[in-house]
Fold each of these.
Amino acid sequence: MPHTEALLFPLAMVALVAEAMTAALAAGRRNMDWLGVAMLGCITALGGGSVRDMLLGHYPLWWVQSPYLLLLTGGAALATIGIAQFVHRFHTIFLILDAIGLVVFTIMGANVAMSMNQPLLIVVVAGMITGCVGGVIRDVLCNDVPLLFRAELYASVSIVTGLLYIGGITYGLSPDIVIAAAFAVGLTFRLLAIRLKWEMPKFVYDSETK
Amino acid sequence: MPHTEALLFPLAMVALVAEAMTAALAAGRRNMDWLGVAMLGCITALGGGSVRDMLLGHYPLWWVQSPYLLLLTGGAALATIGIAQFVHRFHTIFLILDAIGLVVFTIMGANVAMSMNQPLLIVVVAGMITGCVGGVIRDVLCNDVPLLFRAELYASVSIVTGLLYIGGITYGLSPDIVIAAAFAVGLTFRLLAIRLKWEMPKFVYDSETK
Amino acid sequence: MPHTEALLFPLAMVALVAEAMTAALAAGRRNMDWLGVAMLGCITALGGGSVRDMLLGHYPLWWVQSPYLLLLTGGAALATIGIAQFVHRFHTIFLILDAIGLVVFTIMGANVAMSMNQPLLIVVVAGMITGCVGGVIRDVLCNDVPLLFRAELYASVSIVTGLLYIGGITYGLSPDIVIAAAFAVGLTFRLLAIRLKWEMPKFVYDSETK
């Protein structure tokens, strides 16, 4: 398992930075002040894992044990203020980094639940919470209906990635290969979904009835 | 206590399904996609108990220990998409199921706190959190001011139910009788409140002063 | 440490009451009913400490161990309904009480994290969460973008107070003196920020790009 961690670690750092930066842009759209930008960056990047750990009773939380993660994510959010005017040029890079974040966080979250010997369904859910909940908190704090529930194949990518990871580990394949495969498939799925504008059918219900 | 659980169990399943279905309708009003509908169903139905357990440090959470609850509530939410057009015909049934949910969740939540030997006030609050917080999370995720704080005797019903339950158990009555009484009184109170449009006085404050 | 607690205790009670009262006014602006007012008062006053404890795994929570705090804060919120019409006359007093709350909660939160031997950065963050998160929850439940992220030097005051407190304790000064100093500096900083309308620069980002 430490080997797996080592494999995922650099990608996780990239993912944290990417999530913090997208949060900073959302904060800028709400005209938050600099400290608010830094805080929203930390909360978005680290919130998914924190909620997972509080739900599973898995203490201490990652950032409590490794407080430098607060500096990394808060710093990345602040740095985004300086480069925001160029961000639209790097729009594609951002989408790719965010997709990497989704997939990597999912695998890490599933990994945590597996190390606690949770049942398979909880492992998938733990991965999904880790990958997706940070963005939900960001949207709630920005007073939006969370994008996660409305648009794009985001949670679906997380579920597919989690299932692949768990399936591979359960069938006794080498963790390195399983991670590589889950990562590749998840990332491809997410990028195709963005590129081809795949969407899940929506449930439109209109009624005065409470 | 296992006997009590057995008594409440079938009602709790009905309550979970009812809460998931009302959440699905709320999701449909926000045009969420199918996976969003399923997720909002799970979060609404299981959120109250989860918040209670995290506040009390009562691990593992119910759905983590019994993951099939995620399938039950997510499935109920998805099924609602198919039958939404007929739902208005069953409006009254929905209100009754939701009321059953409120009362049953309250008793179950109070029960959990009692089994932890919490003080009486905490037992009432634990019941109220279990019964009411799922709806609060649903409203926050749908970007509404929670109904709980604004309208209808909902939390009040939960408090009365909880007090009856605790009072009966504390005075040494048989759990079966106490549960039946608390259930009957709570449910009647809630249905009367809906029927007769009972409301608590509101606090209307209007000022520019922050 | 018990001595420190004794020193902070009366101020903490004042702070809880102040936070519950400002929450009641926010509830009144949303026309919440009386029970909603009481609940928002409890959640706002006790929410910051609760989130800190859940993040750190520090059980039992303060109000679970001392349930009378629910009566104090809920009662203060209810009392506010009766005196709301006079509140604008006491606007300044409110701002001072709220500032006291911010500083006292920060010191108490930092204290909790120190007693758990958390690293220094986590101690500062624990203080900030305790001082600031209650107001964030209040704003989310009132369907506003949290003020904390947008305006006023609020979190900044919390950080400065926390740093002073930790610095003093770490350098071996007497806790009484450190608390008095951190309290005085934090309160002065906050009141000057209000009086002189100090603000942090804002990050304004406008773009259609997601």
Amino acid sequence: MLTDLHAERPQHLEDLMQWLRIPSVSSDSRRKDDVQQACQWIATKLGSAGLKVDVMPTEGHPLVIAETPPVDGGPVVLVYGHYDVQPAEPLDHWISGPFDPTVRDGDLFARGATDDKGQVLTHVQSVCQWMSAGNPLPLQIKFLIEGEEEVGSANLERLLPELSDRLACDCVVISDSSQYGDGQPAITYGLRGIATYELTVSGPSQDLHSGSFGGAVMNPAIALCHLLSSMVDSDGVIQLPGFYDDVEDLPEDQRDQWRQLPQSDEAFAKSVGVEQLFGETGYTTDERRWARPTFDINGLTSGHQGEGVKTIIPALASAKFSFRLVPHQDPERLTNQLREHLAAHVPVGVAWDLKVDHGAPGMLARIDTPFARAAEAAIEQAFGTRPVFIREGGSIPIVTRFQEVLGCDCLLLGWGLSDDNAHSPNEKFRVQDYYRGIEASARLWNEIANPPE
Amino acid sequence: MLTDLHAERPQHLEDLMQWLRIPSVSSDSRRKDDVQQACQWIATKLGSAGLKVDVMPTEGHPLVIAETPPVDGGPVVLVYGHYDVQPAEPLDHWISGPFDPTVRDGDLFARGATDDKGQVLTHVQSVCQWMSAGNPLPLQIKFLIEGEEEVGSANLERLLPELSDRLACDCVVISDSSQYGDGQPAITYGLRGIATYELTVSGPSQDLHSGSFGGAVMNPAIALCHLLSSMVDSDGVIQLPGFYDDVEDLPEDQRDQWRQLPQSDEAFAKSVGVEQLFGETGYTTDERRWARPTFDINGLTSGHQGEGVKTIIPALASAKFSFRLVPHQDPERLTNQLREHLAAHVPVGVAWDLKVDHGAPGMLARIDTPFARAAEAAIEQAFGTRPVFIREGGSIPIVTRFQEVLGCDCLLLGWGLSDDNAHSPNEKFRVQDYYRGIEASARLWNEIANPPE
């Protein structure tokens, strides 16, 4: 079957490029038809391989649920992924169009290449390959591929309890993260949580002349800057009351293990184009990214943004911002801390409004399971290197819910690289890693069903 | 002649509406032809009344220079104004189109209605009326109407020395400000200076995923907020080193005089739609607006500003901001203080770039002059109320240069109202004040040439 995988590579690449051409930006209401089309594409792909497929409507974008035939007494694995993508803006930073997938130097560039179309497709391809090769799969595989991961998975989260029988499994497998580094595959056993907000500060009923009114009227953009500045100090330590109450110290053995990973601050800084890295003192870069909570402003909007000068006191100023949380931090509790902080710090003469977007707690998976051992073996065979166990700074909001509702184990097998530009212009996925991912997936089914003695 | 003024009112209004229909936004390079057309309109108007007119090219938008015949032994007055306007954005806040002048409830709404087309046109109309009535003017009047006041008057400032013979005058008259309040005309004897900047903070070479990189890379939008916040405290006191060194205390007699003006903080707050006014403690609202320096953010731009959530660390964040200065504060010295402050406060991991836009010092005029007495009389006749002497918070960058280069007195005669929405949506000019301004101007020429005993 592995020979077959090699023979199928051109078709596998062509499939992915087809899917990437569909601009399925879930946050953009003008892209609704495209999102629907990306959903249909993967449903058709799964159906044509002989899986039982159901496209299930939600209040937002539909879910694709598919399954191979049940295997008596065999394990059940659920593969989760998503067919929606982040917005592609700023468009003028892309070398080739975000929805015009292009291979350059062994990398496939497109929005969604690594996050997550390319990665989830590795499992779809491996299962299709098993099915078409005529070998009965030694376990049952279910797929759950949603269209709202990039906007918080609220509908899936709501529907999950009533789907729990249908999605029942021993382990969920997700490929939506990265290898540790070039040539060093990894199994990810922890994710950060997330909480996203939009804060609007409003002052005068319209923009005012800064000469006639400056000194008399609070400037909403200054108020916004003061409020945002008050939330985090110059070392990146978050200043909300009680914010660190639920943050646990990292176990020393974990810190020791991570410090042995081949990490270089200098190379990291260079790869993102900054002179120096930044963050809380007392923690390594991996610790800060994987296991410490953080605050980031994602966007700022106020007043005159066009050419030239317009000397106004703007009527409005707003910011989109997000926190990354560690396990045990609760997004709802954070929202309360945030409201308390804003109420205490807002200056006179302006009003504020906080829009709470999505939130999800962080996640930790067990690594002493047969599934983790099977993944170790499958990855070593496909990538030629034994994987390391790491955490990830990003968030996959639904993962904790899978653990809670389905009571299953969890395997996060990232085939991407940390410089794949997920959420950024020129997102890419190494073609070689796509092929290796398909191979690792194909081997994984066997390793899970036939664990080494 | 005053009867003639009444008869001409419909034509005077029609003239102004014609001029306002031309969107002469000087800061917008796409509006270059419109700016040119607004220039031609006023040149033609002056020429058709028999003035000698010259449209003088500059490196930017042209100057209109015009003059009535010299009067042997009589005084010479220079009227200064501008035919360019501020940008009209945000467009969706206008009740009628910014370049579709519309009268509602006695107010004429359009961009430029009060700032400055409507106001400068009062003097043009009064002079045209004198000329067409066949009465020789008892003094010589020169006009200087430029197209770059809203972008800092840099070209006029550069050319002023070589134009000093041509513009030689005893007094410059400018109507580009406001009455003290409804029913209370004023003569303005002080203006604040201005300094405008754009600060760009750059971090990673492109937007980064806030999960994978948050905690490792300084967020340029946070850095920008910290930098801007560090420049001003929560009371509006500016924190740059040495910023207040050249700020003089207000004389107590001046403070006493201003405190007698009929000012109400409550009514002021209501008129701009805020619950409470704001500013440095220890100063009245008029003192803070007219005679204390201030800092305002005019615009903020960073990261994701569209619909929905995009959890990124933006590569760039920028702010447009401006200071209002009081007499003796030097914009160039401020730029140095600002650079020093930014260099001292910039966090690690980001770079900053400061673009210095235009700057101009504040201005104070003498009020014990025959010109001021003539203006008092003319205004009282036209408005039915004796004017009060006030200052203004806004800036007319070229005024100080007139005093220096032409060695003349200066009269700032504002016909507008402080709620005319200059620089804001729904800019307006009361039609009645336009007519009164024309009458006061027509009487002024007589009062200057024939001072009361």
Amino acid sequence: MISPVDLLAALDTITEHWSPRVVGRVNDQYVKVAKVLGELVWHKHDDEDELFLVLRGRLRIQFGGGREIVLQEGQFCVVPRGTMHNPIADEECSIALIETVTTQHTGDVKISRTRSIAEQLGR
Amino acid sequence: MISPVDLLAALDTITEHWSPRVVGRVNDQYVKVAKVLGELVWHKHDDEDELFLVLRGRLRIQFGGGREIVLQEGQFCVVPRGTMHNPIADEECSIALIETVTTQHTGDVKISRTRSIAEQLGR
């Protein structure tokens, strides 16, 4: 059965920051939503690009060499595979993510906030 | 260089209905935006799922057997590979699409509105 998924309604069920929830799959990519606040952690994904789309609020993403971009509501960017990055939300921010189904949450590092794919699927 | 892409600003540059514009790529998927009005055409993509996200307005998607779903602003659905579908916008509607880079616009049928990947890339 094909049914509509409401991005903001899916976000309303999330209570924990930096804990993405899988809300759809298109080909080999998951669509996830997350509420974020503060800093995640510097990490990279060696083999997978990662798309960040801001649904509510504002997200900063730091890159190496002191570079940083700011994503406002309705803006997205793609972090290419192999790129060190550190997402930061100065105030609570709601995002959608598109990532290969195998992508690990915090890439090549593991912290207490790291979530497994099973957790992101709500299993 | 990684830079933000503004979905609504990208849409503002589009003047033709049913003519998707590639605005990003994540892994083997293109992110596209399109303005749509009226009916496209019944078609399917044998090997590729297709994600429709409504950014402004309202989109109906018809399926076989008289089934239909309605996507409101902020809602998406994934049309699984091999599924006959026909998108219809009763009033102008702005959408984002996520599709494999090889996905053909109108799948297994060709009509005057069919756009090539090169056209969608603005080449």
